[in-house]
Specification:
The chain is α/β, with parallel strands linked by helices. It contains 17 helices and 14 strands. Helix 2 packs antiparallel against helix 3, helix 3 packs antiparallel against helix 8 and helix 6 packs parallel to helix 7.
Length: 444
């Protein structure tokens, strides 16, 4: 049984001007201009898009300390507490990734190493609000992985320097901090200019233009995830509190006007009461201008017959955030597999993951949770392999095997690399090694 108490209503969700904006085209033009003109183009677009054009986009140590001095002591202390949570979890993840070497056959050694990426660009958005947590999630995690150099960029917010964000970037361990945002920040870090060093990898969320810039530059640099609008889905049984459901859905809907907010419940009463609470709370929420648009346009309430059906349906959404408000929330760990992050029980909310608890909030959207997890310490590591054959006998045997395997695929060059070892260590004879003269042997 599936009953829709509220379905999406995307008709008219966006204005004609929004729908007609050529985001890929605009981004491509900015990237090409920065390739051609470097810092001059970066400054041009920063002035054009953010009305920001200081003598230097990079903050000096003195400027950073001056900005941090304006941050309230309570906020400063909270930043340290949250970053300790993120760092503790990231270091535990790093510890779980061990290097190893094994002897697969006598004298044949295979190994694996986890090497940190050389340099990372961390983008901390700030279009509507200061996004302190994004600094924690990107910079702290990269440093926990052992990345030697992290360059961090964040925009001004309506012309103001976001002091608490700068403090977060500094305390997280950023090696360089730039007051620079949008396409121009991502492109400058990815391409490199005379004043901004090219990085190997870009991490961090952003708006549609930032996401598109990362998409277009992927390949030149690595990226964490292709980002879309924030998503939240709640699975609830008949004992769930409608006020909790409504509050937690709206908490995510305030990210923007295009956030899918979905409730799947086994109780029609919980569904109906949650809708009433959502309507009531959305009228008094200070960020209702965004949250109510997301709820009215992309909100869904679905009633199903039993919890197994709820978990199965939730997996088809593959939502970024999945909150479990049931009597036995840990059941979802066994029943579900497609999600960015799970939040188990009423005492745990998605906002904890977004802001303070220590797991990473950069998570897959647009059903990417079907094939990937979110940002974690492993994203900043290159897992590489190495091999060494120490035994003459084994090198020769592998040469024989390689010769047969390669010729089955018509790769004669590969086969001859194997032949050479079989000749050298097992004294096998090969026509190609004697240039057609079986009575001659090469000096190897």
């Amino acid at each position: 049984m599936v009953l829709y108490l509220k379905s999406r209503n995307v008709s008219g969700a966006f204005s004609a001007s929004q729908l007609s904006t050529d985001v890929p085209g605009i981004v491509k033009g900015v990237i090409n201009d920065i390739r051609a003109r470097g810092d001059e183009a970066v400054r041009f677009y920063s002035e054009k898009f953010d009305k920001w054009s200081p003598p230097s986009f990079r903050l000096s140590s003195a400027e950073i300390q001056k900005i941090i001095a304006t941050v309230p002591k309570a906020t400063y202390n909270d930043i340290i507490t949250v970053q300790n949570n993120v760092r503790t979890f990231a270091l535990a993840q790093r510890k779980s990734l061990t290097d190893f070497e094994m002897e697969i056959r006598p004298g044949v050694h295979l190994g694996q190493k986890n090497i940190p990426i050389g340099s990372v660009g961390a983008y901390v958005p700030g279009g509507r609000y200061p996004m302190l947590a994004s600094a924690h999630m990107t910079i702290v995690t990269a440093k926990a992985a052992g990345v030697p150099k992290v360059i961090a960029c964040t925009p001004t917010i309506r012309g103001e320097i976001p002091a608490s964000t700068i403090a977060s970037m500094y305390l997280a361990g950023a090696d360089e901090i730039y007051l620079l945002g949008g396409v121009q920040a991502i492109a400058a870090m990815s391409i490199g200019t005379s004043t901004i060093e090219k990085v190997d990898f870009i991490a961090g969320p952003g708006n549609a233009f930032v996401a598109e810039t990362k998409r277009q530059l992927f390949g030149e640099i690595g990226i964490d995830l292709p980002a879309g609008p924030t998503e939240v889905l709640i699975v609830a049984d008949g004992k769930a509190c409608p006020t909790t459901v409504a509050t937690d859905l709206l908490s995510q809907a305030e990210h923007g006007p295009d956030t899918p907010a979905i409730l799947i419940t086994t109780s029609k009463e919980v569904g109906e009461q949650s809708i009433k609470e959502l309507e009531r709370l959305s009228k008094i929420l200070p960020t209702a201008e965004l949250a109510s648009v997301s709820w009215n346009t992309f909100g869904e309430v679905i009633v199903v017959g039993w919890l197994d059906e709820a978990y199965k349906l939730a997996d088809t959404f593959a939502s970024e955030h999945v909150q479990i408000l049931t009597e036995n929330p840990r059941e979802a760990l066994e029943k579900m597999s497609n999600y960015g992050a799970l939040f188990l029980g009423e005492k745990t909310c998605v906002s904890y993951g977004d802001k303070v608890i220590g797991t990473n909030h950069v998570l897959p959207t647009k059903k990417a949770a079907r094939f990937t997890g979110g940002l974690w310490v492993g994203k900043f590591l290159k897992t590489v392999t190495y091999q060494e054959v120490r035994s003459h006998q084994e090198s020769g045997e592998l040469g024989r095997l390689c010769g047969r395997a390669a010729r089955a695929e018509k790769f004669e060059g590969h086969a001859r690399s194997g032949d050479l070892r079989a000749y050298k260590y097992l004294k096998d004879r090969f026509h190609w090694l004697s240039s057609g003269r079986p009575d001659t042997s090469p000096k190897i």
